[in-house]
Amino acid sequence: MTGVSETESGAEGAAELGGGEVGEVAAEQGGADGGAADDQRWLAMAVELATQNVRDGGGPFGAVIVRDGMLLATGQNRVTRDFDPTAHAEVMAIRAAGAALGDFSLAGATLYTSCEPCPMCATASLWARLDRVVFAADRHDAARGGFDDLEFYELLTRDRATWPTVVQPVDLGNRTEPFDTWLETTTRTEY
Ligand SMILES: [Zn+2]
């Protein structure tokens, strides 16, 4: 995905919530995120984005990312619209927040999502170094909606040989070359 589309995604999400009034939204919250009342309000926003996305023809998932009481980004599921199986609401929000901040670390931020993150989004949250992830519906609610979150969580606990997708190593003589090059590169950007 390009930076341009990430930015568009975030701008689009923000527009649906009132466009350039992100600061006002944050000001209305009063104080830093983390309090129970703030959690309720930000989570309600994520749920609203999810429900609206269904009305707009998308999947029932929405997310927002907040840091220091400020809305950094929003995300809605774009899998079917973008023909992108990884375009989950949380991933869209993480991409938009990173692009908005110009930083690949979202340390100090909280991700509010309308539904418990699937394994991909849970791991994306770890990669993003988010402080917290707060969700409303859970994997069982998602299963009732016909989604594979629960299935994939269970799949990950089983032997990879049982997965519908074959994941296998092939021995290659220079398999460590990329890492060797990485370690030799003193100008590398650690993440
Ligand atoms: Zn996901």
Walk me through this protein's architecture.
With 191 residues, the chain is α+β, with helices and mostly antiparallel strands. It has helices at 3-16, 22-29, 36-55, 79-82, 89-101, 119-127, 139-144, 149-156, 177-184, and strands at residues 62-67, 70-76, 110-115, 132-137. A four-stranded mixed sheet has the order 2-1-3-4. A hairpin with a 2-residue loop joins strand 1 (62-67) and strand 2 (70-76). The two termini are 19 Å apart. Residues 1-33 have low confidence and may be disordered. The structure holds zinc ion (ZN).
Distance between the termini: 19 Å
Approximate strand percentage: 5-15%
> Roughly what percent helix?
40-55%
What's the pLDDT, averaged over the residues? 87
Bound molecules: zinc ion
Shape: globular
Secondary-structure content class: alpha+beta
**N-to-C series of helices and strands:** HHHEEHHEHEHHH
Count, helices: 9
Q: Uncertain segments of ≥5 residues (pLDDT<50)?
A: 1-33
- C-alpha-based Rg, rounded: 18 Å
- Main sheet: strand order: 2-1-3-4
